[in-house]
Design brief:
Layout (H helix, E strand, L loop, with lengths): L8 E2 L8 E11 L5 E11 L9 E4 L4 E7 L2 E2 L5 E3 L3 E4 L8 E9 L9 E5 L2 E5 L19 E10 L5 E4 L2 E7 L4 E12 L6 E4 L2 E8 L5 E8 L8 H18 L7 E7 L6 E2 L4 E5 L12 H16 L8 E2 L5 H19 L2 H20 L11 E2 L8 H18 L1 H15 L3 E2 L1 H12 L8 H4 L5 E9 L4 E9 L14 E8 L15 E3 L2 E4 L3 E6 L7 E4 L8 E4 L3 H10 L3 H25 L7 H12 L5 H8 L4 H8 L5 H18 L1 H10 L10 H21 L3 H9 L3 H14 L4 H13 L4 H12 L6 H9 L9 H14 L1 H4 L5 H16 L1 H8 L10 H15 L6 H11 L1
Parallel strand pairs: 2-12, 18-19, 19-21, 22-24, 25-32
Antiparallel strand pairs: 1-23, 2-3, 3-9, 4-8, 5-6, 5-9, 7-8, 10-11, 11-16, 12-15, 13-16, 14-15, 17-18, 20-21, 25-26, 26-30, 27-29, 27-31, 28-29
Helix pairs in contact: 1-2, 2-3, 3-4, 3-5, 4-5, 4-10, 5-6, 6-7, 9-10, 9-11, 10-11, 10-13, 10-14, 11-12, 12-16, 14-16, 15-16, 16-18, 17-18, 18-20, 20-22, 24-25, 24-26, 25-27, 26-27
The structure holds phenylalanine and zinc ion.
The site of zinc ion has 4 residues, from helix 3.
């Protein structure tokens, strides 16, 4: 049974509102259980709209105590307040009018964390996508833009800080123990960008002088005592502001920019105008408590939210179907930022790993949807890796196809033309078509067709003609609701490497448009001939992952090893190592399943160890080279009938073989690169730690005793090394007394630090093997587990389901049954959190029959529950379809 109406929203039904919202004036009288909100909304009827048309506003779980039209009570015959809407009739034909709505809220019982809620005694809001309607009745859609005035009244002792969007107007005490503050945001904005924060918080302050010389006050608010852990975030913010000026010519536009870190948050962070709200996980860092990955995430997410000020806030989405307009583009911008701040190659490798691990399975399963969907039932379920990461890749392909100069011109045109508007993907693409004079109609299919394209390639070399012929064929697999697909415009960067590693200059190509090193694949089948190729080259295809595709290219191990050694594009070297490893891991899984000995390819071992030992390469790259494709990567390559235990066992045996062959190299790397310097979170230092820890993990495989990891644990002077050592201990020797001791030490040392405790839960939730379930259940009984804190729930239950393939996919199905129970329990409090964790089961159909049957039954159990949120019911029904 469903508790929502189950209504599906279609893009084609879009039409503008009947009424134009001119201004918003909000007054909040804050109280944990009885907050009063008065919303004064000035509207006028849009030209051409029927004079009798009513005003229809959105609402969700609201208690309305008064409703006025131009300060007079509206007679009950003139309005209907339903569950999800408020309809008002008898409104002026042309003149502007003021609607005043008073509602009462209970922030402290709001466990959905949407609308106004409490987190650690702080009042906080989250409005994207449709949370504002939980505060007051409102035209809660992104194409309704207005300036906001916000008055906040609260108890002065417990809420000395009163914040909202825009610039501070003033405030004062009120004599009754309360005080007030007023804010005005002059930039018209949609309701999803509204924010209010009130409470008692510590502050880190700085200033930034913009391109045109304006001073902006920068403030990051955190819990008292945590101020020192916000300095890295502040530094990242200033670098982001500078980068957006330098690279995109975008300047900040208010006198103040604020970030508030809260410990209860459904997502990563939120770009509310001038007042970003962050999951504190993406703000707080110091060497003792944050890993290098945490630092990199903080830098990226601070940048992401800041960049939204132009791509999202100044130019916003016409409707939620256009979500990728702001998210895909902003992810692209934050990726480029991180690439400029760190190693571009290593950043690209991380992006592609992430895309393959998260987006490819989504695109290949029941939840697949286009980057720009045309229908949805619950918009919260479309904050997906397809909209974000594939959306970013599509933007990157525009830059690849147009080249840097035209891409920049297209972005400039977009900012110029659409500033202050709520627009569509078509508006965005039109800017690039216009500046480049290219027809981007076929390219736009990337926004409309779901599924990862599969490109099959083969080559033949003609020594007499000195030509290399490349045959390409593309296929986009069917996805829910889209059975037949058109061929796409796929930009493939290529390199032709000769025996000595030199690259062939690309000239005189027939059969495809070629720009620079980009081959444009646009037909279903295309034969491309490169001339003046003096000897048979190794072809490096899809360099830099220029297109987000699956590639089937029968290439010899020798060619792959050659590319791994000589490609000038370092990403392509990493890819070649991956391509060497993957077939070996697939056959290892088959051998393990059949109980046969696993064989490790000598070419793989040699190439991997050569990269690991190559002092000419940056350590972070070498660490990436050593990280074999994950168990999920192997499962995806196998495609179906997967047995996670066999995949795990095969991969373990390959790791062991590499470890044995490289023991000397790994020993040297561990012992020589020991960190004696003071800690620094910069990318180069992080790279050294990554290489040492990768080597340590192999070395422990080779030695098969916990000694080295215990030593590393005891010697660690930073969280990266400490948590890596603990992970190795827990995953390799879960029952060893050394592990028990290390886990206890860790827990005790960080008992006061929620974010570090999350790591303690995560490390244990990801210990492979069927004992994981009992361990997770036991950890749920730990007094430190807190089912109301989203980070903690994700750390334990989320990582168990997402990141423990053998532990979760137990052959007896107990993992799925456990998850079904947990999803129902979480759903009762926080539907968004429940729905997101449930997507861990999105690839259930690619499991072998026995497991798939158990998974289906668990999903059916969820679907049959008496009371389900729209969020969970939407996901579970799509997964079962
Ligand atoms: N818009 C946020 C971002 O990506 C994500 C978000 C969505 C946060 C919905 C909260 C709710 O930057
Ligand atoms: Zn975003």
């Amino acid at each position: 049974m469903r508790t929502d109406t189950g209504e599906i929203i279609h893009l084609e039904d879009y039409r503008p509102t009947d009424f134009v919202l001119e201004r918003v004036d909000l007054t909040f009288e804050l109280d944990p259980s009885e907050t009063k909100v008065e919303a004064r909304l000035i509207f006028h009827r849009r030209e051409g709209v029927d004079a009798r048309a009513p005003l229809v506003l959105d609402g969700d779980e609201l208690k309305m105590t008064s409703l006025l039209l131009d300060q007079d009570e509206i007679p009950s015959a003139n309005f209907d307040a339903a569950d999800h809407s408020l309809t008002i009739r008898g409104l002026p034909e042309t003149a502007p009018f003021e609607i005043t709505i008073t509602t009462e809220l209970s922030p402290q019982t709001n466990t959905k964390l949407m609308g106004l809620y409490r987190t650690s005694d702080v009042y906080c809001t989250q409005c994207e996508a449709e949370g504002f309607r939980r505060i007051t009745y409102f035209p809660d859609r992104p194409d309704v833009l207005a300036p906001y005035t916000v008055n906040i009244i609260a108890d002065k002792a417990t809420a000395p800080l009163l914040l909202s969007n825009g610039n501070y107007l003033g405030g004062a005490g009120m004599g009754d123990g309360r005080h007030f503050a007023a804010w005005f945001d002059p930039h018209p904005k949609p309701s999803y960008l509204f924010a209010l924060v009130a409470g008692d918080l510590g502050i880190v302050e700085d200033t930034y002088t913009t391109l045109s010389g304006r001073d902006v006050a920068l403030k990051i608010y955190v819990e008292h005592g945590k101020e020192a852990r916000a300095t890295y975030a502040m530094d990242a913010l200033k670098r982001s502001m500078k980068w957006d000026e330098d690279v995109f010519g975008r300047e900040y536009d208010l006198d103040i920019f604020m970030i508030v870190a809260v410990s209860d948050f459904n997502m990563g962070a939120m770009e509310n105008k001038g007042l970003n709200v962050f999951n504190d996980k993406y703000v707080l860092a110091d060497p003792e408590t944050a890993t290098d990955a945490d630092y990199a995430n903080i830098e990226a997410i601070i940048a992401h939210e800041y960049f939204h000020n132009w791509t999202g806030n100044r130019i916003t989405c016409r409707d939620w179907f256009q979500l990728c307009l702001k998210e895909g583009l902003t992810v692209y911008r934050d990726h480029e930022f991180s690439a400029d701040q760190r190693s571009r190659t290593v950043k690209r490798i991380a992006e592609v790993r992430h895309l393959r691990a998260e987006q490819f399975p989504e695109d290949a399963g029941p939840l697949a949807h286009p980057v720009r969907p045309v229908k949805y039932r619950e918009i919260n379920n479309f904050y997906t890796t397809t909209v974000y990461e594939k959306g970013s890749e599509v933007t990157r392909m525009i830059a690849t196809i147009l080249g840097a100069d035209l891409f920049k011109q297209g972005m400039d045109l977009y900012f110029d033309r659409h500033d202050g508007q709520a627009v569509t993907i078509e508006d965005f693409i039109a800017c690039f078509a216009e500046v480049s004079q290219r027809d981007l109609t076929q390219f736009s299919l990337w926004y409309h067709q779901a599924g990862t394209p599969l490109v099959t390639a083969s080559t033949s070399y003609d020594a007499g003609q000195q030509t290399l012929t490349l045959s390409l064929e593309q296929m986009v697999p069917p996805t829910p609701g889209q059975n037949i697909k058109e061929p796409m415009h796929i930009p493939l960067r290529v390199g032709l490497l000769l025996d000595d590693g030199a690259e062939v200059t690309i000239t005189g190509v027939t059969g495809a448009e070629v720009t620079g090193d980009v081959v444009h694949l646009v037909e279903r089948k295309q034969t491309v001939v490169f001339s003046n190729v003096p000897s048979r080259p190794a072809l490096s295809l899809n360099r830099g992952f220029s297109a987000p595709i699956n590639l089937h290219f029968e290439q010899s191990s020798e060619d792959r090893a050659h590319i791994a050694r000589f490609e000038s594009d370092l990403f392509a070297r990493w890819q070649a190592l991956n391509d060497l490893a993957l077939p070996n891991l697939v056959s290892a899984a088959a051998s393990a399943k059949a109980g046969l000995p696993v064989e490790c390819d000598a070419a793989l071992v040699e190439a991997l160890l050569a990269a690991a030992a190559d002092e000419a390469l940056e350590p972070a790259f070498r660490a990436q080279a050593l990280a074999l494709p994950s168990e999920a990567d192997i499962a995806r390559e196998i495609g179906g009938n997967n047995d996670p235990d066999a995949i795990h066992s095969g991969r373990q045996q390959i790791m062991t073989a590499i470890a044995a062959a490289g023991r000397q190299i790994f020993t040297t790397l561990v012992e020589r690169t020991a960190d004696t310097d003071a800690f620094s979170p910069d990318a180069a230092s992080a790279g050294k730690r990554a290489l040492r820890n990768a080597a340590l993990s192999y070395l422990v495989y080779a030695e098969n005793v916990p000694g080295r990891a215990v030593k590393a644990f005891d010697a660690a002077n930073n969280m990266t090394d400490l948590s890596q050592a603990l992970t190795i201990l827990a995953h390799r020797f879960p029952d060893a007394p050394e592990t028990t001791t290390a886990l206890a030490t860790f827990k005790q040392r960080f008992a006061e630090n929620g974010l570090v405790l999350d790591k303690w839960f995560t490390i244990q939730a990801t210990i492979p093997g069927s004992a994981a379930l009992a361990r997770v259940k036991m950890l749920m009984d730990d007094p430190l587990f807190n089912g109301n804190n989203p980070n903690r729930v994700r750390a334990l239950i989320g990582t168990y389901a997402f990141s423990n393939p053998t532990g979760f996919n137990r052959a007896d199905g107990e993992g799925y049954r456990f998850l079904a129970e947990q999803i129902l329990a979480i759903d009762a409090r926080n539907p968004q959190l429940a729905a997101r964790i449930l997507t861990a089961m999105r690839s259930w159909r690619s499991l072998e029959d026995g497991r798939a049957e158990h998974a289906r039954n668990a999903l059916r159990e969820i679907a049959a529950a008496p009371k389900l949120s729209p969020d969970v019911s939407d996901i579970v029904e799509r997964m079962l379809k």
